[in-house]
Structures are given as C-alpha cells and as structure tokens.
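can u do me a favor
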C-alpha cells in the first residue's frame, strides 16, 4: 500500500488539472518526483554496472528519453515488436536487448521494415530450435544477428537452465549467422520469497550468473563494442544488488522510477510514487441509503459513511484521494461510474478530481494513451504513449 507520507499534495494537483481545463480521466506524472527517482536509482547502482531502462514500464518517448539521459543508460529492454518498430524509427541509435524471445516471424517483420535492427537489436534465444530459426532468418536476409541467451536463474519461466547452458552456448557458436554477446537472467521471484527460501535462492542466482560470465569469457565471447560479455539481470526490486562481483555487466529497471503500487515494497524505500490516475468526481452523497434498505436509513446515520461516484473506473489502481476512500463493497466495481465509500467530507467534492495509484505502469500508460506532466504545480506538457500493440 502507498504510505500517506509518500503521496503528493493532491489538492494542488486538483487545482492544476482544473486550471488546465482538464475535464476527463487522465494519467498525471509529477516530473520532480520522476527526476528524483532517476537520481536515486543512479546513486544506488553499483559502480561499473550499466543500466538498461525497461521500455514497457515508461512507455512514452519523452519519458524514456529523460530516463535514458539521466541514468546514462546503455540502452533499453524492449518486449514487443510494435514498440521495437516505434523506437527503431524514432530513436535509431538506441540499443535494444529483447526482454523475451520473439517468434521468428515477428523478428523477420522487424528486420524487413527497420534498417537499423541488425545493428541495434540483441535478440533473445531460449532453445536450440529458436537459435536455428534465427540463424536461418539471418542467412535468408544475408546478415548476422546479435543474440543473447535467456538463462533460467531460478524463476523457471523459461530459458535454459544453468546445467544446459554450456551445450546451448556450443551449438550457437557453431552458427556463424549468429553473433552471441551474452546472457539475460531475470529473477523477480527473489524479493517475494519468504526469508527462509530467499537466502538460498539469492545464492543460486548469483552462482548461475557468475558461472555464465566465466564461461562466456572462456569461450571468447565479447559484448557490445568488444566489451566484456553481456550479463544482464535484475529488475526494479533488485537492480541495486548486482555488479561486477557477481559477473554482472548491466541491470535493468523501469517501474520503480514511477513506483506503482505493486512496487511499494521495502526494496524500493526512498523512491516516490510519481504517476497517478485522476478522474472527475461526478456525484457525492453524504449519507447514502443502502439499495433496498431505504427504510432503515434513519437507523444507520451513525455510520457517517458517504459515497461518491467517479467518471469511469475499474482501472488497475486503488483510490488514494479523497483520503480514507476506497471501493464500495455495496455497489461493486464499475467501468462507467465507480462508487467509492469513505468519511463524510466538509464540502462536496463534485467537479473536483479523485486520484488513484496504479498497480503497474505498463498496462495503464497505453490504456490512457498520453501522460499529463505536472511541473511546479502546473500541467506543462502532454507526452503521447508508445504503441499499445504487441
């Protein structure tokens, strides 16, 4: 849950939105909080460790630009062919590491349409079958493809297990169409495991990463621009754990930079929630009768619970303002005019804004299609979202 002390002054945000003439539900980013999170992330990263920004979590081009610039990032981690198309078109010098293996047909479409793709994209491979598919694609196109191996460091969502890594490495090295640059091993389970299991799992992850790094060096594998082999790991909850001591060359992060509700955990202490949904309040009833029990209302005045109805609803988010309000257990969820319940207010909030804290950023940004940027108490910019397609 969002702690009250980490939340912004929503009365100020309400005034800024109304001054800007906003009348519909929208997504708002506090630029100062976002920049402060970027500085904190930079300060927590291990020296000698590259930072890679997860594009889907900050899916608006100006937002991504600011993150890459302020972090001095080595590039982005990209998860969809649609976003890859957009970014290769708009930022042709940006380096991409794919965050999941794409079907070879999707990769072929990108290579056909984006001339910079062979130079700027590191494709992720998880099996020898997929490696063969990509090698055949590279041969068909008359090019060499940059690739990395997805390493299963304990999450067990796919990728090659450490015991089978050497064999897959050998097979890929025998495919001259592929230029192997390293590995990617994601480990979001670590932060969520109970303490008795976490210590052993952390040790297993570090052993897998260190072992992969050593084997890559033994096989003469080099990373981008001839540097040390690529060993990418981490995420928003763990990026500050890794560095050269674990054989890690770079870490990825994204969501923590806006800190949705799902990332309000001890590991992200110090980061500030920076992005919220704002929506007009349509109705307010200070002492609302319960449906079907109107006659009992005089007996229930002691509850002093009020209801308000917002414009829209059913978002991946939780109410945070007006303070003390939450989803109504009587009216249920609604995407039309969702009812919240809470304490009676001193004045009607109708035509003011209510605010919700998104549970994640990657689904919410494309849903709203744009982000209003709040700077020093005013809405100063509108950032369009990147493609919501896959």
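np, heres the sequence
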């Amino acid at each position: 849950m969002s702690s009250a002390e980490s939340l912004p002054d929503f009365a100020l945000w309400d005034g800024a939105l109304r001054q800007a003439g906003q009348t519909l539900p929208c997504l708002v980013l506090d630029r100062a909080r976002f920049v402060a999170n970027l500085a904190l992330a930079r300060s927590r990263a291990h020296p000698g460790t590259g930072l890679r920004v997860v594009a889907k979590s900050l899916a608006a081009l100006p937002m991504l630009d600011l993150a890459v610039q302020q972090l001095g990032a080595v590039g982005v981690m990209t998860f969809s062919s649609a976003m890859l198309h957009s970014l290769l078109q708009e930022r042709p010098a940006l380096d991409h590491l794919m965050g999941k293996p794409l079907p070879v047909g999707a990769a072929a479409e990108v290579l056909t349409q984006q001339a910079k793709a062979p130079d700027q994209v590191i494709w992720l491979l998880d099996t020898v079958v997929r490696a063969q598919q990509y090698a055949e694609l590279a041969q068909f196109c008359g090019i060499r493809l940059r690739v990395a191996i997805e390493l299963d460091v304990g999450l067990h969502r796919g990728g090659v297990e450490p015991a089978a890594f050497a064999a897959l490495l050998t097979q890929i090295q025998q495919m001259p169409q592929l230029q192997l640059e390293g590995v990617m091993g994601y480990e979001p389970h670590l932060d969520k495991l109970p303490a008795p299991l976490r210590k052993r799992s952390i040790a297993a992850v570090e052993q897998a990463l260190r072992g992969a790094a050593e084997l890559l060096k033994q096989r003469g594998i080099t990373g981008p621009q001839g540097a040390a082999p690529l060993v990418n790991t981490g995420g928003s909850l763990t990026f500050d754990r890794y560095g050269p001591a674990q054989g890690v060359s770079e870490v990825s992060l994204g969501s923590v930079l806006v800190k949705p509700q799902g990332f309000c955990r001890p590991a992200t202490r110090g980061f500030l929630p920076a992005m919220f949904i704002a929506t007009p309040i349509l109705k307010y009833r200070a002492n609302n009768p319960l449906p079907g029990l109107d006659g009992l209302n005089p007996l229930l005045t002691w509850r002093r619970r009020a209801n308000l109805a917002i414009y829209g609803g059913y978002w991946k988010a939780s109410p945070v303002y007006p303070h003390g309000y939450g989803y109504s257990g009587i009216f249920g969820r609604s995407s039309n005019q969702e009812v919240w319940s809470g304490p009676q207010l001193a004045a009607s909030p109708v035509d003011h804004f209510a605010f919700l804290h998104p549970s994640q950023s990657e689904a919410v940004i494309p849903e709203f299609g744009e982000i209003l940027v709040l700077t020093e108490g005013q809405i100063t910019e509108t950032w369009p979202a990147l493609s919501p397609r896959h």
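The first helix runs from residue 10 to 19. hope that helps!!
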